[in-house]
Design goal:
The structure is a single chain. The longest helix is centred in the middle third of the chain and has 25 residues, at 167-191. Helices cover 55% and strands 0% of the residues. It has helices spanning 22-36, 45-53, 59-74, 84-87, 92-107, 118-133, 137-153, 167-191, 215-224, 229-235, 244-255, 266-289, 306-318, 323-327, 330-350, 362-375, 379-382, 384-394, 399-402, 443-446.
Length: 450
């Protein structure tokens, strides 16, 4: 049995390629525990060192550590002076790619599918994250689906599975299930994929490990729980049974999903608040697709201008966050900012809005989001050109203002439902990396201009 209570695979004495050095493992472990553990609390410090102890005898431990370090280098992108001697003159991405290749090569030597373990699930999850960060979405989807399938083979979706094994092992396996649950939903909405996991087991307990609070992780799960097969089916156009009342209720749920005071780290707050406003945008996009919006609706979430309100709230939150707290989440968070900005552009191009002197408005929100995306690592090279092209094609008169740094400080009074941030600490046939903006449905088709 391994440390998670899963059957141990036959070790094949993995031979180190020299890539997975102790120094690199230490650096990645320290970064994960300090920055990412609250968001993906699936590996404890003790378990990481147990993996290191098994690296010469367990192929699964070796593959997991390769994928783990590759993910840390590619997705959040560890940087700073401590990492320079560990990667030398090579880029983080190039080292990450080599670690991915090593994990995939070594993984072929044992049958992790017929006899899956939690280590195998975690490895597939990290490989998904790596390929997501590399913008290789066909391969990313394959490994995410592999992770959820292995989890189901192990029975993680069945509450009875958690009645055996040690308390720590079951605690971490439960968290892993819910992390896959959230990840699958976010990716399904981003890339129009189907779901395979459902809310069939109990949530982790906030009190299960007082030394390492996971309240933020539970908030994240609750944000995504409403996005079930019904919503994803409607989003993917495989079903049509939608209603105005249902979508309006979902918007209310999202607006009230997070408490006024989160009581989480700044890094968690960045993920939670950005995800909340992105999900509000997704629901609005489904509303306009189904012709449910009205310029006279008493419910602002069912009006054409609602994305302006969303952008206002998003700007109010992100303007209080450090750049590093957002960059830790990699391109996943930037894609969400990008989606909100694209939707705002569509609305600004078609919905009349009053221009008030000396007042912050939609153009200011757009300027801020463009500038923010351009300053985040990975944003300028991948997403800024797409955003500038969309502005140029949709509303060229706004082009000059949006590509320059905002000249005024964005201080937005938030709507009452989104309190000021408070925290404790500061199937494709084409190439999967072809960029495609998350544009809203053709707006002119829905909005009567005459």
């Amino acid at each position: 049995m391994d440390r998670y209570g899963s059957p141990a695979s036959s070790p094949s004495s993995p031979t180190s390629s020299g890539l997975l050095t102790q120094e690199l493992i230490d650096g990645c472990t320290d970064f994960y525990l300090a920055q990412l553990f609250p968001t993906m609390p699936i590996l404890q410090n003790e378990q990481l060192w147990a993996l290191v102890a098994e690296i010469d005898t367990s192929m699964e431990a070796y593959c997991l550590l390769c994928s783990f370090c590759a993910f840390m280098l590619i997705q959040p992108g560890i940087e700073g002076q401590p990492m320079k001697p560990l990667i030398g003159s090579c880029s983080r991405t190039s080292i990450g790619r080599r670690l991915i290749d090593e994990a995939l090569r070594k993984r072929k030597s044992h049958d992790y599918i017929e006899n899956p373990s939690v280590d195998a699930v975690v490895t597939s999850f990290f490989l998904f994250g790596c390929f997501f960060g590399l913008d290789k979405h066909n391969t990313a989807w394959f490994h995410l689906r592999e992770a959820t399938t292995l989890a189901q083979i192990m029975g993680m979706q069945d509450e009875k599975t958690y009645t055996t094994g040690t308390r720590i092992a079951m605690m971490n396996m439960r968290r892993l299930f819910w992390l896959l649950f959230v990840t699958e939903r976010a990716y399904a909405l981003q890339k129009h994929r189907p779901l395979s996991l459902h809310a069939t087991i109990d949530l982790p307990s906030v009190a299960e490990d007082p030394s390492k609070p996971i309240a933020g992780f539970i908030h994240l799960v609750n944000l995504y729980r409403p996005f079930d097969d019904t919503f994803v089916g409607l989003w993917n156009k495989s079903r049509t049974d939608c209603s105005t009342l249902w979508l309006a209720h979902l918007q209310t749920q999202l607006s009230q999903a997070l408490p006024a005071v989160l009581g989480v780290t700044e890094t968690q707050a960045a993920d939670l608040r950005t995800s909340q406003h992105w999900l509000r945008t997704i629901v609005w996009q489904l509303s306009i697709t189904n012709n449910f919006l009205s310029s006279t609706s008493p419910d602002s979430s069912m009006t054409f201008g609602y994305p302006i309100e969303i952008a206002k709230d998003l700007v109010a939150v992100t303007s209080q966050l450090s750049q590093r707290s957002m960059e830790v989440h990699g391109v996943g968070l930037i894609e969400k900012l990008f989606d909100v900005a694209c939707t705002l552009i569509d609305v600004m191009s078609c919905v009349p809005h009053e221009s008030q002197h000396f007042s912050v408005g939609p153009q200011d929100y757009l300027d801020y989001l463009v500038h923010l995306i351009s300053t985040l690592r990975g944003g300028r090279s991948r997403y800024l050109p797409l955003l500038i092209t969309k502005i140029s094609d949709t509303m060229p008169s706004h082009m000059a203002a949006s590509i320059t740094q905002p000249t005024v400080s964005i201080k937005v009074e938030q709507s009452s439902e989104i309190p000021i941030l408070q925290h404790q600490d500061s199937a494709e046939t084409h190439s999967s990396n072809a960029s495609s903006p998350y544009s809203t449905p053709p707006f002119l088709h829905y909005y009567p201009l005459s």
